Amino acid sequence: MFAVTVVFEIHDGQFETFMPLMVANAQASVKQEPGCSRFDVCTDPDRPGEVFLYELYDDEAAFKAHLETPHFAEFDRIGSPMIANKTLRTYAQVAS
Hints:
- It is built from three helices and four strands.
- By secondary structure, it is an alpha+beta fold.
- The radius of gyration is 13 Å and the shape is globular.
């Protein structure tokens, strides 16, 4: 399994708009992509303005294919201006 974790730091005033986009993109990944099997989107009250994403893919190729999907392109187009910083980490060996 191939796990992806991302911490998004959102510009002030954009959080309420960004969250539905993030959740919709993750839901589309699970529904439309055979290689994506799980996602979690969460926040931490001690870290306001940050959104945490966890997605689980069959392998790295499935994750890279996700980056080419129409729903990701749309999320990237709309969401990128709301993101102040993004920290991406990937893990190739994950227990299923």
